[in-house]
Design goal:
Elements lengths: L1 H19 L2 E2 L13 H13 L6 E11 L3 H13 L4 E6 L2 E5 L2 E5 L3 E6 L7 H11 L6 E9 L2 E9 L17 E2 H10 L3
Antiparallel strand pairs: 1-9, 2-7, 3-6, 4-5, 7-8
Helix pairs in contact: 3-4
Length: 192
């Protein structure tokens, strides 16, 4: 009986932990992905609300440029992404909680900031090959996203699965996973 109760407790704790740490991206959060373009509508809406230090970032435009024709075509575009890739990463800070009686109070602030990225040495050719072969599918829609970061203009090719309407987030600038609790925190406390 003790083993059974302990097992139930473990399952409950695991479920609670999993719910607390659910994630999404700036492309997915917001409107349901009914069209491929909804990803970009969400992105353009979310950056000013949920990225703390977005002053140095201006999303300019996105445009549909075609479909993934073959692996070589995909690799060529991915190489362009890496040849001029912004050096930043998303850093997340989450508030702690204090439980007093039956109340759970947030202590601190939830933030997602743009931070300079320390890019580990990796084989770009191998990364491009892996993304092209394992994550992008022939027929995926290709969009060109233009934005300015730290007064430098960037263009990045974004691949979107036409059936699921999901962005291929591997090696995509705004494809980082962000905890849902961050969005909830900002919505509850107002974005600054």
């Amino acid at each position: 009986m003790k083993c059974f109760l302990f097992g139930v407790l473990l399952v409950v704790c695991h479920v609670f932990y999993a719910q607390e740490h659910k994630t999404t991206t700036l492309y997915r959060y917001g409107k349901p992905l009914v069209t491929c373009e909804t990803n970009f509508e969400n992105l353009f809406s979310n950056v000013p609300k949920y990225i703390e230090n977005n002053d140095d970032l201006d999303l300019l435009s996105y445009q549909f440029i075609g479909v993934a024709k073959n692996v070589n075509h995909v690799k060529k575009l991915l190489k362009k992404n890496f040849s001029h890739y912004p050096q930043w990463a998303v850093a997340e800070t989450y508030p702690g909680y204090v439980i007093s009686g039956k109340e759970k109070k947030s202590v601190g602030k939830s933030e997602v900031k743009l931070m300079p990225a320390v890019i580990p040495p990796f084989n770009i050719k191998e990364v491009v090959k892996t993304i092209a072969n394992e994550y992008v599918s022939l027929g995926d829609r290709i969009y060109l996203l233009r934005f300015v970061y730290n007064l430098e203009t960037f263009e990045q090719y974004i691949f979107v699965h036409p059936d699921t309407k999901e962005v291929v987030t591997k090696a995509t600038v705004f494809g980082n996973d962000i905890r849902l609790s961050h969005f909830d925190y900002c919505n509850k406390n107002g974005s600054e």
